[in-house]
Specification:
Layout lengths: L1 H17 L1 H24 L15 E9 L4 E8 L12 E5 L8 H8 L3 E3 L6 E3 L9 E6 L20 H18 L7 E7 L2 H16 L8 E8 L5 H14 L5 H10 L10 H14 L39 H7 L2 H6 L16 H5 L9 H9 L3 E7 L7 H10 L4 E9 L5 E8 L2 E6 L6 H4 L1 H13 L9
Parallel strand pairs: 3-6, 3-7, 7-8, 8-9, 9-12
Antiparallel strand pairs: 1-2, 2-6, 4-5, 10-11, 11-12
Length: 473
Amino acid sequence: MGDQHKKSGSFSLQLCVLGFACVLLSSAAVAAADDQLKEQERDRIIKLPGQPANVNFSQYSGYIPVDPQAGRALFYWLIEAPANRGPSSRPLVLWLNGGPGCSSVAYGASEEVGPFRVRPDGKTLSLSPYAWNAEANLLFLDSPAGVGFSYTNTSEDIYTVGDQRTAKDAYTFLVKWFQRFSQYKHRPFYIAGESYAGHYIPELSQIIVRGNKGIKNPVINFKGFLLGNPLIDDYYDNIGTHEYWWNHGLISDATYEALNKSCRDDTFLFPRDECNAALSQAISEFGNINPYSIYTKPCYDDGGSTHNVKLPLPWTFRGRDDCVVMYTKKYMNSTSVQLAFHVNLSRAPHPWLTCSYAVRNNWTDSPKSMLPIFKELIAAGIRIWVYSGDTDAILPLTATRYSIKALRLKTVTNWYAWYDNHQQVGGWSQVYKGLTYATVRGAGHEVPMSQPRLALILFTHFLKNMPLPASSF
């Protein structure tokens, strides 16, 4: 066996001596492959503090520089599919939370679709039976810089952040991340997320699609996106949100009229004074409920007092539910946890926050509508699924239905009830030419958190591009 290796090696060497370029190319390729493996191993998470013993999947985390001159670097957490689920044959799914300014590690990874949940002690982890990495390799990104563990060395970046730069940096992150994890190149790639990711995801998708034009075999094999309770269009969102509040008995007739009069044409970022007044009145009429899930109790902290569920305005953070991250916040602020995640302790924001007020309050650009981008992506053949938890009052289903209606898509399958295999209605769905819409029954703003089983069914059908089951059989 050893002799065969020697003969094979000398044969390769003779071939390359005949062509000097071959030697250089081979050496460069080998060196590049070695560097990639070293970078991956450097990012490998050996074990998280408090991690259960029966973990059978690989994890990686670290930073990708997206603007070396400014010193912007984005933090990621890759959680691969379990070994017995064949991670090498599974697609890659990027998850993005919104805000703007909220951490995907805080919400998506730790409360919704990731495999770990922080226990009430804030120190140990349990496993979720409905984690999405059963079906795909999951990549969570803290975006933009200044959010979660992502950072910038240029303080001015925090005051000039907006949709455009966020999308550009996320694209740069992906291109460089695929260089580090070359085994994922050309793998089917999807994006999923919720809330203000209704902006992030279409904008990033547009850059990817345009970047792939003319490339026969693009590195980013982008197939589609899955978007929950999203902000899509300011005008239709205002109409649908206020209608939901009124027809669910949350506000008075007079307030509903005031909202329709003062807020209909207002933007997400810059509502006028008259609109702010109407919104404040609406919030006061809500009473002590959790607007992210109107039929569940407001959460309570360890002291038994009501946690901060009343928001000064419903869009201060669309997607910031402090109720669900109390334990995660404690865990992620542990130095031992941050070391296990390879966090840059000298650069990452301290303390670790689930959402950044600085980023949100200084947001500079937010287009009023994503509908033109939706139309472009539908024409490009990108798979688009949108879903709504039907008890969310922050970005409710009526808002999303108005936005989808404005696309004027041809109906393929009319509105129908879909079922889980426990023979219960999981929600309702309608299939359009170019887009599938679904509601998830009894789910709030964070659908995979409040209805994890139904969310996993929806995710599985999305990946397979199969309509949700129309019967329980």
